[in-house]
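User: Second chain of the day. Same drill as before.
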Amino acid sequence: MQGGGALGAYEWGAVTALCEEGYYPVAVAGVSIGAVNAAAIAGARGGDVIGSLSRLWERLTNPYLLDAMPWFAPFGHPNMYWLNYWPNPSLTA
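Assistant: Same format as last time:
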């Protein structure tokens, strides 16, 4: 499993779909978030890979991120989209 933030969530869905079709991993390895997923798969109690990954990702994600951290809202910063169109000071009024 590879690393890269959002790929971890993708891997959760991909592994879940494979397990639902009856294809369970025999060995796992990963880097970064892929290693976290691999650890959840390897440590799945009773072979419950789907449950193990689901518990992991339900704890990692926050569906109310913008409610919890309003400063992440793109329109919350007054100077975010400000651009100086006049690089020459003599042209500004």
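Residues 6-20 form the longest helix (15 residues).

User: Great, on to the next one.
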